[in-house]
Queue: 2 jobs
Job 1
Amino acid sequence: DVALTNVNAKFAKRPEPLALRQVVGRLGVRRLDDGMEYSTEALQFETEDGLQWPGGNVRVALYPAEGDTPARGEIDADRLDLAAMAQIANRLSLGDAVHAALTSMDPKGLVERVQGSWRGFGVPQAQFSVKGRVRGLALAAEETPDVGRPGVRGADIDFDLNQSGGRAQLAMRQGQLDFPGIF
């Protein structure tokens, strides 16, 4: 359990630290028989410039490759604010391409729940499964010389996907779809 004030987290390749006024919640690290588990519970924080992470829970389990068995992992999370996540991610060492993509997409919405697992990421016969619910999703459209990237605002999406396909249900009320270069 943590209740800290005036925390500065320094990341490689980022000259400025992530300065936090306060951090409250539970952080966990647990050794599993064949991997590691990292978790947060009701973690909330506020940056020096007023950005607030409103809470939520995350559990990530990572299992390294062993012999012929590929690496695998699991994620279970709820109440993730996409706008706050993008703003925090832009303060981390994630590379210029990731920062540019987050800025241009300007994500917003609340991931109410997401559960996922993967096995053999980036190898032949890789497997993944992810299901969840996002409410109030907004992603900015982007015009390009060709067709562009579509945008959406006010979407509620329930999804269940895997490497073979899946399903998604989209509902909108007073929302908007934007197809630059088409409409």
Note: The two ends are 51 Å apart (CA to CA).
Job 2
Amino acid sequence: AANPSTSSYRSNLASALRRCGIAMQTCGRAPQAASAFRQSITVLREEPKPSPWDYYNMACYQSLLSGTAANGLAEADNAMESLRRAVAAGWRDPTLMRTDSDLDPIRCRADFQMMMMDLGMPADAFAREK
């Protein structure tokens, strides 16, 4: 909080809030978990120049929030939009996406599954070999 312009501090703060949210969720305290997830999202939204990793993390926090919030569908939609932004900004790690438990709440969505297929395809899948 004392150095809000330092990106790594903001990222670490958002991650710490995420861990608090997961702890609250594990203890059955959904409202407190949702609040922590919202705070982590706010921290990343205030990042002046978000990196692909920031967008990915925001998608994770929004996905977690979708599992605890009354407006879960809207948060799941937000998570998918953040994943699209992460990919558009250059983020590519389908292995992490496939295993990251933060994304469990949105993993069954058709648009998530389609994105996984897209990320698994080579850049030029139909190029002829020479």
Note: The CA atoms of residues 59 and 82 lie 5 Å apart.
